[in-house]
């Protein structure tokens, strides 16, 4: 049908223009039959008229970042790679940045096309180059497309360069051409030099941007204290941003932990947890890993262990435990959302005992009693936070849901935060589970109401 329509329009400019416009309307519409859409884009890519091909090429570049039909993504990606269309690389990166289940990142059609078009350069380096110099596009509908390309490229690198080590090397090296006067790059280089860290996700870039805001005297003080603390343990670098507040706190309150190696920190944590009652989640998830610290020995690095120990210290405080039960009561009485907030210990008060602050989701951000949404005010207040937390307290006896859901793990990975979920076991008992952006889940055990 598609070929017949094109053949009928041959030699008639007006009919040809109408036919091509119909093709474009079909290709753009996700409601159309997927096979018809694929046939249309295939016909346009192989049209004898170079102008039609060029029109299809420009359209496909705009379609690709938002295209949900996988057969279309695969065909467009392969065509771009086979024909050497290097201008497709930014669009391929944006499509590639959308996670896919059950497919290895390296095997995806976008990755294969980028590798083909990169001319021998590593895929990660090609993505980094787009982050450094995103394509210039006019702003439309209030969207800064250069920032969008940059954020998607960085999120993708967060999956491919999980600890940020390659990006730290590229940003630190003098061979990488840097955009002049770029504040984002300047902030990253400062973080590498002074804190031995780098933002791994797009949300962490926003976090870093807020941390270096010169109008915040509190953040400036935190940065100074943290940079001093980091120098004492930089042999354990690189760090993730979520480790830094724990390092700062330990430098002022548990300096002896700085003298312990990884195995000694692990022994300290295991000794604590082995004495506690645990409640493993048994329902409401797609996949579930063991929540015992011994199951994660290979993934837990020195700064991970220090951070877990520091947060555990926070959770031993009676006033924090009492607040958790109060927040649980408020949450249980509100069936429009889950409640949550932040755990902080800066500025230092009460000898570093820390505090827990509730930030209920705003009315427009409430998606039901089984989901927590971090409000803008919560994120703005958590520059120097130790961890984010939320509640699983829909029922008083809710132990079957003790631990993070798949969505909770996605949240931790997106924001780059160490997170805690508190689950109601009974009227007077609460369970705490810590989880990291890399999927590590550690049951910190249950505690009684003070």
SSE blueprint and pairings:
Blueprint: H1 2-9, H2 13-28, H3 34-45, H4 50-63, H5 70-82, H6 89-96, H7 109-117, H8 123-132, H9 145-160, H10 165-172, H11 183-195, H12 202-211, H13 217-232, H14 244-253, H15 262-273, H16 302-315, H17 318-332, E1 340-344, E2 355-358, H18 376-381, E3 387-392, H19 406-415, E4 419-426, E5 429-435, E6 441-448
Parallel strand pairs: 3-4
Antiparallel strand pairs: 1-2, 1-3, 4-5, 5-6
Helix pairs in contact: 1-2, 2-3, 3-5, 5-7, 6-7, 6-9, 8-9, 13-14, 14-16, 15-16
Q: For the record, what CATH class of the largest domain applies?
A: Alpha Beta
* N-to-C series of helices and strands: HHHHHHHHHHHHHHHHHEEHEHEEE
What overall form do the CA principal axes indicate?
A: globular
CATH topology of the largest domain: Cytidine Deaminase, domain 2
Largest sheet: 6 strands, mixed
Count up the domains.
2
What does this 3D model show about the protein?
This protein is of the alpha+beta class and about 450 residues long. The chain has 2 domains: about 1-160, no CATH class; about 260-450, 3-Layer(aba) Sandwich (Cytidine Deaminase, domain 2). About 50% of the residues lie in helices and about 10% in strands. The protein contains 19 helices and 6 strands. α19 (about 405-415) links the parallel β3 and β4.
């Amino acid at each position: 049908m598609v070929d017949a329509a094109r053949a009928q329009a041959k030699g008639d400019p007006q009919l040809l223009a109408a036919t091509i416009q119909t093709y474009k309307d079909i290709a753009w519409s996700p409601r159309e039959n997927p096979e018809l859409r694929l046939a249309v884009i295939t016909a346009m890519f192989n049209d004898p008229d170079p102008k039609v091909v060029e029109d299809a090429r420009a359209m496909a570049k705009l379609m690709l970042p938002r295209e949900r039909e996988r057969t279309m993504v695969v065909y467009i990606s392969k065509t771009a790679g086979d024909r050497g269309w290097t201008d497709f690389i930014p669009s391929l990166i944006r499509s590639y940045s959308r996670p896919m289940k059950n497919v290895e990142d390296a095997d995806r059609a976008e990755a294969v096309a980028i590798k083909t078009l990169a001319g021998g350069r590593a895929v990660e380096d090609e993505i980094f180059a787009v982050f450094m110099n995103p394509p210039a596009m006019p702003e439309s509908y209030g969207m800064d497309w250069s920032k969008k390309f940059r954020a998607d490229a960085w999120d993708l690198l967060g999956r491919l360069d999980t600890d940020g080590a390659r990006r730290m090397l590229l940003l630190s090296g003098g061979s990488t051409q840097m955009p002049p006067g770029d504040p984002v790059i300047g902030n990253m280089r400062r973080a590498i030099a002074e804190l031995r860290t780098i933002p791994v996700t797009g949300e962490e870039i926003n976090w870093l941007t807020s941390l270096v805001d010169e109008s915040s005297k509190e953040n400036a003080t935190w940065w100074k204290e943290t940079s001093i603390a980091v120098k004492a343990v930089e042999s354990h670098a690189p760090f993730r941003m979520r480790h830094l507040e724990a390092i700062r706190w330990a430098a002022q309150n548990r300096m002896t932990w700085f003298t312990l190696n990884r195995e000694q920190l692990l022994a300290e944590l295991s000794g604590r947890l082995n004495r506690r009652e645990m409640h493993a989640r048994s329902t409401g998830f797609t996949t579930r890993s063991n929540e015992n610290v011994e199951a994660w020995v290979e993934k837990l690095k020195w700064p991970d262990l220090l951070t877990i120990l520091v947060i555990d210290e926070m959770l031993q405080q009676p006033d924090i435990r009492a607040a958790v039960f109060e927040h649980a009561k408020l949450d249980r009485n509100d069936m429009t959302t889950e409640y949550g907030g932040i755990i902080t210990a800066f500025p230092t008060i009460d000898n570093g005992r820390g505090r827990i602050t509730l930030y209920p989701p705003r009315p427009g951000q409430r998606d039901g009693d089984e989901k927590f949404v971090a409000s803008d005010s919560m994120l703005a207040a958590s520059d120097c936070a130790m961890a984010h937390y939320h509640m699983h307290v829909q029922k008083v006896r809710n132990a079957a849901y003790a631990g993070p859901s798949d969505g909770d793990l996605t949240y931790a990975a997106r924001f780059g935060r160490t997170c805690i979920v508190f689950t109601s076991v009974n009227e007077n008992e609460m369970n705490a589970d810590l989880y990291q952006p890399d999927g590590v889940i550690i049951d910190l055990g249950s505690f009684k109401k003070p």
